[in-house]
Structures are given as structure tokens and as C-alpha cells.
Write a structure and sequence with these properties.
Helix content is about 50%, strand content about 10%. It is built from 19 helices and eleven strands.
Length: about 525
């Protein structure tokens, strides 16, 4: 290609190009444009490679692949992603091998964006008008007219078209991921889990992978906390605060200061400002600069998830209010019965651990739901809330109760269930109060049907109540009460084992014994 001719063709490349700074932060995309040469003539491959050896477009050079038959070319296209252009001979192993390949690319590989340029040495054998109409190709050239200059023009035009189509396709896929991803994020309740989900969605939208993604939050105090991190930045998950000595910090600080996203390759920081006046920064470090379409998609995504951050915060506040209510009710019951000490807190911990162990053992998969696993610990502290209605002279009596007093004492199960059921009806769906009502009303029922207040038996008793029933008695045996001294650990364990299938669900007892075998200190109070 002569110098003057190259200059004449430069308009194809220079249009809308951005000047990249020399400091490396704006380094060009390091991927190569992939071009497949398909021809059964070895000399055509050599000449084409020679003509294209110094060609580059938008700072990216060409990576040339060669195939010498339609079948070989099909295999390369099937197994090699991101081929932008196919320079395709018509006549190879058969007179129409090139035409058949062009059709297979679109119909079998479903590749609609690769540009296909037919080159033929026998134009009359495949008339141009018929080929253009019947086959989804992008250009048709006689080999004799493809001079070096014309080949250059054809390749650059094809690459520009491929880039535009590729960006449109990425935009379509990216928008779909935004819609699907943002919807899924609304179902996450933990801020750290939510942030991790956001990072996964950002990586998916980029579609180019990333060395790592980092989510940070800044409040009114100006302190920047790490919410979640992936890839090379995963170690920052263990750091509560963002280290100011970190290489990403200047760009992150700039995003917070200017309150807008920063795109300074390799550091790209997405800035999110929520209506609740929280500021979030998401730092991504893809291996090459983000294209404008990717920046636009990420900005759209940030707008979508800003509302999700606010909703998550409000959800968290409501959950905290609900948890505080549960704790207050439990503290009220324990306040009147000071002799129980930290009983309800120990029951909370052991109930949660035992339920998790049952889940790991595969027991009652239809009853041990994710909601139960999450809520049973806090719900269990409500098991004796009905004691607020028990007279002090009975509740605090140091000796053995009379039959009449015992009957009065047993009313606390029904009272607790009634109180909590009324409260639970004021909350949509399953809540701590829902499980609390089941536990309060059922933790004195027996597996064999000889318990109270309703003589339920076996799986008629809610699973939450069956679990807390074991833990409640186990902990009570191990600790001092007004009417008894603490039992030795081995005797308490033997009692629970002996009551399996009678008072207690045998599967729940088996899980507790499994826990104790793994850790003999289970249930013991630390010295």
C-alpha cells in the first residue's frame, strides 16, 4: 500500500476515534480483531496475510486464521469466539462450498454478526445479484479487483460494521441482565449478600470478566467501609475500612468527592447516590478500557440498584424493629423469673445450631425450610412468654408445685401461643412471631401424645416446637433452678436419650447427640 493511498483510506479509521493519554491509564483494548481467511489456494492466504500485516483499527491489530475448505472453516468458526470477519472463497472442495458455509454460519451457528465477504475468481459461476439476494453476506468481490488498497477498505468497513453490531448485541444482552439481575437483588436481605450480588451482575454486564470488583459505602462521617469484594480484592472483605494506601483509593476518593462515576482505566468507579443519602461506589478493573456502551449500561444498572439499596435499608430497619420486639417480649418474661438466668439466650443459640444440624443430616426436608433455619433461634426465646400471666407465688415457688399449681403453671403454653398468634396476624407472611407462637404452644407437647396443652403427638407438633422442646429441657437440667440443683452433663444427656420416642422427637434427639459427640462441651456453661 503506498503512503498516499494509505492516507486516503485513513478517514475510515480516524472518524470518532478518541485520543488515548500516554500515561497508560487509557491504554487501548489489547484484544485483536479476528479475521478468518477461507480459500483452497495457499498463495491467496500468503498474499492476504502480506497485505494485512500492518493493518490496525482503533489501536487493535489483526489476528489472522486460515482454513482451506468449507468444512475446516466451519469447525474454526464453531470453536473460536469473536471472529469478526470471514474472507470467503466460493469455489473450494465443491463449486458452492463457500455459499454453503455462508448459509451454515447463519442457520446452524446462529452467528448473525460476523461479517462475511465472498471472494471469487470465477464471478460468472456465482452471479453477484443472485448471491447477494439469496445469501446473508455483506460484500461480494472478484479476486482480481481486490487490490491491497481495496482489501484494506473492505476489511476496515467490515470491522466497523462488526463492532457496531457487536455493541448492539451486548447492549441487548446487558439490558436483559440488568432487568433480571436487579429483580433478583430485591430478594436478598443481607447487605453483604446484596453487594456480592451486585458485583456478580456488574461482571456479567461487562461480559469481559474482571480482575476483581469492590463495593464500598460512605456515610455522613466520610468513613469509607468495604461492603463486598471479589477477585484480587477479596482480601479486603476482612478489612472493615478501605485502606487509603490502596492503588484504587485516589479514583474512589475522587468519585465520592465529585459524586459521579469515574472511568480512568484501569480504575473504573461507579458512583451511586440513594434517596436515603447513602453513597455507594463500585470499583471494577477489567483488562481493557470500557467501551461507551458498557459505561452506559453500567450507569443504567446503577440507577436501578440505587432504589434497591434504599429498599434493603428500610427492610433491615423493619427487621431490626421486629427483632427488638421479640427480644423485649422475651426479656419481659425472663425479668419476672430471674432464676432462669441466661436460659433464653442459651436456648436461642442451641436451637439455631440444632436446626442447622438436622438440615445437614437431611431430616424433615419438607419442614426445615430456609425461613425456619433463619428465624428459629430468635423465635425460640419466646417459648415461655406466656409466663407473664402466671402468678408470682406459683412462678417463683422454690418447692414442688401442687397439682392445682401445676395446672395453673401449664396454662403458660396456651397463653403464650394466643398472645403471639394475635401479634403474628398483624404481619404478612411468616415472621418470628409465627414460629414463636408454634414454639410457645407446642414445646410441652410430647412425641407420644402425653404432653400439654393439646396432647398432640409425633409430627402433629410443629417442627420448631419439637426442636425447642429438647433444648429447653436439656438446658434446664444443666442449670440451677429455684426447685433443683444442676444435673451433671452425662446425666442430662442420658435423660434426653432415654426420653427419645416418648417425650422427644427421636430424630431431633439423634441430631443433638450427634452434636455432643462432635463437641462434648455442647450445653456446658463456660467457666
Amino acid at each position: 500500500m503506498t503512503e498516499s493511498n494509505a492516507a486516503d483510506d485513513n478517514w475510515l479509521i480516524d472518524e470518532d476515534e478518541e485520543e488515548l493519554p500516554a500515561d497508560g491509564l487509557g491504554a487501548p483494548d489489547q484484544r485483536l480483531w479476528r479475521v478468518l481467511i477461507v480459500d483452497d489456494d495457499v498463495d491467496v492466504h500468503a498474499v492476504t496475510r502480506l497485505a494485512l500485516r500492518n493493518v490496525s483499527f482503533k489501536g487493535r491489530e489483526l489476528e489472522l486464521f486460515s482454513a482451506y475448505s468449507g468444512r475446516e472453516a466451519y469447525d474454526i468458526l464453531r470453536d473460536t469466539p469473536d471472529i469478526a470477519l470471514v474472507l470467503l472463497d466460493v469455489v473450494m472442495e465443491t463449486d458452492d462450498a463457500g455459499l454453503l458455509l455462508a448459509r451454515r454460519i447463519r442457520e446452524e451457528l446462529h452467528n448473525a454478526i460476523v461479517r462475511v465477504v465472498l471472494r471469487t475468481g470465477q464471478p460468472g459461476q456465482a452471479p453477484e445479484q443472485r448471491v447477494i439476494i439469496e445469501y446473508d453476506i455483506n460484500d461480494y468481490k472478484a479476486k482480481t479487483e481486490l487490490t491491497t488498497q481495496k482489501l484494506f477498505t473492505t476489511v476496515i468497513s467490515a470491522l466497523r460494521a462488526y463492532e457496531s453490531l457487536n455493541m448492539l448485541e451486548r447492549s441487548r444482552i446487558g439490558l436483559g441482565k440488568i432487568l433480571a439481575g436487579a429483580t433478583n437483588l430485591y430478594q436478598i436481605h443481607s447487605l453483604r449478600e446484596f453487594a456480592s450480588g451486585v458485583l456478580n451482575q456488574v461482571s456479567a454486564i461487562l461480559d469481559v470478566g474482571s480482575d476483581g470488583v469492590l463495593c464500598l459505602m460512605q456515610g455522613d462521617t466520610g468513613v469509607t467501609t468495604v461492603v463486598a469484594a471479589t477477585g484480587h480484592y477479596a482480601a479486603l472483605n476482612d478489612a472493615e475500612l478501605m485502606p487509603t494506601a490502596h492503588p484504587l483509593w485516589p479514583t474512589i476518593a475522587k468519585a465520592f468527592a465529585e459524586k459521579k462515576s469515574q472511568f480512568e482505566h484501569p480504575a473504573n468507579v461507579l458512583f451511586i447516590h440513594t434517596q436515603e443519602n447513602r453513597e455507594v461506589a463500585i470499583s471494577v478493573t477489567p483488562p481493557w478500557p470500557l467501551a461507551q456502551i458498557q459505561r452506559d449500561l453500567l450507569e443504567v444498572f446503577c440507577q436501578r440498584i440505587a432504589a434497591a439499596f434504599d429498599n434493603l435499608y428500610m427492610f433491615g430497619q423493619l427487621r431490626k424493629a421486629q427483632e427488638a420486639t421479640v427480644v423485649a417480649l422475651a426479656d419481659l418474661a425472663e425479668f419476672r423469673d430471674a432464676g432462669t438466668g441466661g436460659h433464653v439466650r442459651r436456648v436461642q443459640l442451641l436451637s439455631s445450631t440444632l436446626t442447622q444440624r438436622l438440615h445437614e443430616r437431611g431430616a424433615y426436608p419438607d419442614e426445615i425450610t430456609p425461613q425456619l433455619l433463619e428465624m428459629i433461634g430468635l423465635a425460640s426465646i419466646l417459648h415461655d412468654v406466656g409466663k407473664v400471666a402466671t402468678p408470682d407465688h406459683i412462678l417463683l415457688k422454690p418447692g414442688i408445685h401442687t397439682p392445682e399449681e401445676r395446672a395453673e403453671m401449664q396454662q403458660h403454653a396456651a397463653v403464650g401461643k394466643s398472645i403471639l398468634e394475635r401479634a403474628a396476624r398483624m404481619v404478612d407472611g411468616v415472621s418470628y412471631l409465627t414460629y414463636g407462637a408454634e414454639i410457645a404452644g407446642g414445646h410441652h407437647e410430647h412425641w407420644d401424645g402425653n404432653g400439654y396443652p393439646n396432647q398432640l403427638k409425633a409430627r402433629q407438633i410443629p417442627i420448631a416446637a419439637r426442636i425447642v422442646a429438647v433444648i429447653d429441657v436439656f438446658d434446664s437440667l444443666l442449670h440451677e433452678r429455684p426447685y433443683k440443683e444442676p444435673w451433671p452433663h452425662t446425666e442430662a444427656v442420658s435423660y434426653i436419650r432415654d426420653r427419645a420416642g416418648k417425650q422427644f422427637d427421636p430424630e431431633v434427639v439423634a441430631a443433638l447427640l450427634d452434636m455432643i459427640e462432635r463437641d462434648p462441651s455442647v450445653g456446658r456453661t463456660p467457666d
